[in-house]
Design a protein that fits this description.
With 217 residues, the chain is of the alpha/beta class. 27% of the residues lie in helices and 23% in strands.
């Protein structure tokens, strides 16, 4: 697998915010979001074998206690041996898979039910709108969620429209909206309070408020 970095930190996004997690960041992504904060993952990495990844995980575990591993990117679903890695890790850890939402999870991850899934939905300000693969709605369990990163009023309006569309297909999916880092969160909070939407939580990127916008945190 092509791995960009492995580090221990705090989950700062979504309903599992605050959980201590070991992050395995894979290299490369098929999308190019305008506000991406991990562009270094596009082409900075090296090849790890599955045993090398497990050895690194065990080294962290020997020094610390954690129950969660977050597999993120880049886009993890582009990694050929992802299924094998997850099959091994799920014996001892809860796995949170962060994916862009553009790739069919069922096709690339047959064991999708064994992981918690953070599925992005790219809005217009990202420059990657209309990339969401609606097939992924079929693979969403109660502990999964779809995350919308909102940059402006148009993004928020599109979020409302897309959330309604998805609710018609599955009305039990949890949505997370968060402002693009650096935008005034109060405006988005006010918009959220005054909008008629269901199954939605407004959240901030907690790790950036704690550590700043730095690599490996």
């Amino acid at each position: 697998m092509n791995i960009n970095e492995i580090f221990l930190s705090i989950q700062g996004e979504g309903p599992y915010t605050g959980e201590k997690m070991l992050f395995i960041r894979t290299e490369y992504c098929n999308l190019r979001c305008s506000w991406c904060d991990t562009k270094y993952s596009f082409n900075e990495g090296k090849i790890f074998t599955i045993p090398q990844i497990i050895e690194t995980v065990n080294e962290y575990r020997n020094k610390n206690d954690f129950d969660w591993i977050c597999i993120t990117g880049g886009e993890p679903l582009l990694q050929r041996d992802l299924n094998e890695l997850i099959s091994i890790l799920t014996d001892n850890y809860k796995i949170l898979l962060e994916t862009s939402g553009s790739i069919d999870i069922g096709k690339f991850l047959p064991i999708y039910n064994s992981v918690y899934k953070d599925i992005d939905f790219k809005l217009p300000s990202s420059g990657m709108y209309n990339k969401f693969n609606y097939t992924n709605i079929n693979y969403i369990s109660d502990h999964d969620y779809i995350k919308f990163t909102v940059g402006d009023q148009m993004d928020f309006d599109i979020f409302i429209k897309e959330a309604e569309k998805i609710n018609h297909l599955n009305n039990s999916i949890q949505f997370i909206i968060q402002p693009v880092w650096g935008k005034d969160p109060k405006w988005f909070a006010d918009a959220f309070i005054n909008a008629k939407i269901k199954n939605t939580k407004f959240m901030l990127q907690e790790h950036k408020y704690v550590f700043g916008d730095v690599r490996g945190k």
